[in-house]
Amino acid sequence: MSESRRKFIKHLGSTAALLGVAPLAALASEQEKVTLLEPEKRISANDKIRVACIGMGIMGFGDVKCALKAPGVEFVAAADLYDGHLTRVKEVFGNQVFTTRDYREILQRKDVDAVIVATPDFWHDTISIDAMQAGKAVYCEKPMVQHIDEGHQVIAAQKRTNAVFQVGSQRVSSIALKEAKKRYEAGEIGQLNIVEAVMDRHSALGAWQYSIPPDASPKTVDFDRYLKDTAKMPYDANRFWRWRNYQAYGTGIPGDLFVHLISGMHFITGSLGPERVYATGNLVQWKDGRDVPDVVVAIFDYPATATTAAFQMTLRVNFADGGGGSEYTRLIGTDGVMELEGNSFKIKKHKLPEAPGYGGWDTFNTFSEVTQKAYVQEYQKKYGTAAAQAQRSATSYAAPAGYDERLDHFINFFDSVRTGKPVVEDASFGLRAAGPALLSNESYFGKKLIHWDPVAMKIV
């Protein structure tokens, strides 16, 4: 960094440096400010944390690879019900990693300090509680639980054991959302009244038609153990590999994707949750035997609190989007809108002028000429000319190239493991994020409006 730039950043007196960003070059043509956000400084850890992962599927491998980028972390053990995953663990991370089909063997090991729970949703509560009772710190993938009552059991277990427990909705650790929260609390968009978010896809993998290995069979997969307390049945590869498609094992679109959007919005606004939820949708394209919809739209009514006004949120996920898919979140206020996309966001301000204006699509043009002149004289006397101007501006904020919010989320988790400080997303936050998503499923399948107590986190 040049000395001139260093002085400039210091003079700015913020976590953000003002400069042009190549991916946002289009914004420059509109003469908008683009602010590049700076991650916090990384401090090497003195104490090594030995991590195990239970569930070595897509999220398991991704989480472990990300966690190992944090300083002072060692991967020592893995559990999975498919032998091929355990073979792959040793190929990727080394033969020294202990592997087993039985996650309880991992919890008995004294060389495991923390556990990543990356199993299908219906196993989250059981393994998380067992791990906390075994004295392990827990990083549990979202959604925290499959059912509301399970969430209260996880909260109780965390309080009872005093274990470090963090939910893996990484957006709450993003430097972009941290800055967005600061801008929101400063009142830059005025009073929030509507949140709208979309996460659309149009691909087989995006619709959970995951690849099934050719060696998958009752011999290589412990399917009976996998079924847990669900209905017993013969081995079914789809139910094991494409579990998100089934109510028995997953939480559908709301649990997979709504929960991300809800987590981020709760973090920015400080909201505890809605008081009413209604969801509708359809099974449009992916009629592959799944018993969950591939299109879901949900409306959430958030009540007024001491820190937020009442507002409405609409979430949509469409796996049959012939446009190819898109993703955005918009927080719309009385003075502006905050548009979030990935690890960047834009604030557009359009503050209404004091003067209401006249003419155009207005009754003014129906007045007689004498009345029009009289109206204009009174109008100018009351408002003048400056009061007629709307205040418009646009400012963009972006994380630097290569920034990884999931890594920041793991670093925050490991910092809590080492120091005992509160995690950024505890079990209560996790249930307040998962709860509205799970209620979306209940509303969809029950075809009814659901009333929710966001403080007690219970259906009314």
Describe the structure.
- By secondary structure, the chain is of the alpha/beta class.
- Among the domains are: 1-38, no CATH class; 49-171, 3-Layer(aba) Sandwich (Rossmann fold).
- 33% of the residues lie in helices and 22% in strands.
- The protein contains 14 helices and 18 strands.
- It has helices at residues 3-12, 25-29, 58-67, 83-93, 103-107, 124-133, 148-161, 175-185, 223-226, 237-241, 252-269, 369-383, 405-419, 427-446; strands at 16-18, 33-37, 49-54, 73-79, 98-100, 114-117, 137-140, 165-167, 192-200, 276-282, 295-302, 311-318, 326-333, 336-341, 344-351, 391-398, 450-453, 458-459.
- Helix 11 crosses helix 14.
- The longest helix is centred in the C-terminal third of the chain and has 20 residues, at 427-446.
- The N and C termini lie far apart (57 Å).
- Residues 1-30 have low confidence and may be disordered.
Helix fraction? 25-40%
Largest sheet descriptor: 12 strands, mixed
Q: Identify the CATH class of the domain at 49-171.
A: Alpha Beta
**Distance, first to last CA:** 57 Å
Q: Detail the poorly predicted runs.
A: 1-30
Spatial arrangement of strands, main beta sheet: 1-2-16-15-14-13-9-12-11-10-17-18
> Total strand count, please?
18
Overall radius of gyration:
25 Å
β-sheet strand percentage: 15-25%
- Class by SSE composition: alpha/beta
For this structure, the CATH topology of the domain at 49-171 is Rossmann fold
**What is the correct CATH architecture of the domain at 49-171?**
3-Layer(aba) Sandwich
CATH superfamily of the domain at 49-171: NAD(P)-binding Rossmann-like Domain
Overall, the morphology is: elongated
Q: Please report the number of helical segments.
A: 14
Mean residue pLDDT: 91
Organism: Chitinophaga jiangningensis
Protein name: Tat (Twin-arginine translocation) pathway signal sequence
Keywords: Signal
GO molecular function: nucleotide binding
